[in-house]
Design brief:
The protein has helices at about 1-20, 25-45, 55-85, 100-125, 130-150. With about 160 residues, it is an all-alpha fold. The chain has one domain. Helix 3 (about 55-85) runs antiparallel to helix 4 (about 100-125), helix 3 (about 55-85) runs parallel beside helix 5 and helix 4 (about 100-125) runs antiparallel to helix 5 (about 130-150). The protein is elongated, with a radius of gyration of 17 Å.
Length: about 160
């Protein structure tokens, strides 16, 4: 247990150093929380396999893996943005030509879309949603992450 506490403390310090404590850290953490929620909902579908949800679980796992794979890219974007315009508060630093506002907006939208994808998984679990809806939400998440990376790299 103690080892876990020290590991979490080291990770928090590393996050502070790389992501700061401002808007970039919040955008990253919003995505991570959405991903955690998605996986919590997915675990519920897994638990419902005995009730005929097995095919849904099998279809949702690759989506979950894809969204989890985007976390490293979200972190890289946030780290690069923090290096370009360090943020320790609630506002995106000025003087960057405004493009970082758009980067932050896309990261925020990715986090919000991921929360919507988790809700879609919950609907599948309740039997009132379908996997196609989750796939559409996951595509939206990916689009926002890709767009944030393009904006950060200066591509239109």
């Amino acid at each position: 247990m103690l080892k876990g506490l020290f590991g979490a403390s080291r990770q928090a310090r590393r996050d502070d150093a790389e992501l700061g404590k401002g808007v970039w850290r919040r955008a990253h953490d919003r995505y991570r929380r959405g991903l955690d929620r998605f996986h919590q909902m997915l675990e519920g579908v897994e638990g419902d396999q005995a009730e005929g949800q097995g095919e849904n679980y099998a279809a949702l796992v690759p989506i979950a893996n894809s969204l989890a794979g985007l976390l490293a890219q979200v972190r890289a974007i946030a780290v690069q943005a923090q290096a370009a315009a360090p943020s320790e508060g609630m506002e995106i630093p000025t003087g960057t030509g405004g493009y970082l506002n758009d980067v932050h907006r896309e990261l925020s939208r990715a986090g919000n879309a991921l929360a919507a994808a988790a809700e879609a998984v919950a609907l599948v679990r309740l039997g009132v949603g379908n996997v196609a809806g989750v796939e559409r939400k996951a595509e939206i998440v990916e689009d926002h992450v890709i767009r944030a990376a393009e904006l950060l790299d200066g591509r239109p």
